[in-house]
Amino acid sequence: MNTKQPENYLQQQDSYLAAKPLYGGDSNKKKLSMTGAVRAQESEHLLRLSSGLGNKTADVEENHIPADLDGMSASISSRLPFNVHHALQLELDYYEGHAKRLMGPKAVPQPDGSWDVIGFQEDGDQRPQDGTLG
Q: Are 77 and 46 in contact (CB under 8 A)?
């Protein structure tokens, strides 16, 4: 994950707030993202939130298996200066994703041939988190 910094949004202003809805017709993906940044005295803070729903569709070669997808992410970045030469930087990232599939590969390759797949169901979650303090 790559956390944006408050200065990416603040530049010559003391606050920034934006919301952006997105839609992708090929995957029926709906996403809403919100970004807020503020400069308070000498410190700068940034909060980014995003949430989405959609489907992954199969391609012609069947490399992509159809799936229902949803997820959300949040990232926080703060910079707290102590003096001209030293500052404390805090970054936190969180992602939560869910995928559900009712179709899968037709066969699973094995060293002695392949196994035919009769049924397939996947219902999985991801929750990676990352943080730095420096």
A: yes
Write the CB contacts of 70 (distance below 8 Å, at least 6 apart in sequence). 52, 53, 54, 97, 98
Q: Whole-prediction pTM value?
A: 0.73
Decide if 99 contacts 68 (C-beta within 8 A). Answer: yes
Q: What tokens does 32 get?
A: 């809403």
Q: What are phi and psi of 124, to 5 degrees?
A: -125, 155
DSSP symbols for 43-100: EEEEEEEEEEEEEEPP-TTS-S--EEEEEEEEEEEEEEESSSS-EEEEEEEEEEEEEE
Name the residue among 69, 125, 126 with its Cα closest to residue 93.
126
What is the per-residue pLDDT across 2-27, written as a single tens digit (0 to 9) for each?
Answer: 567 888 889 889 999 999 999 987 77
Of 104, 87, 82, 97, nearest to 129 (Cα)? 97
Instruction: Say which residue, 47 or 68, is predicted with more confidence.
Output: 47
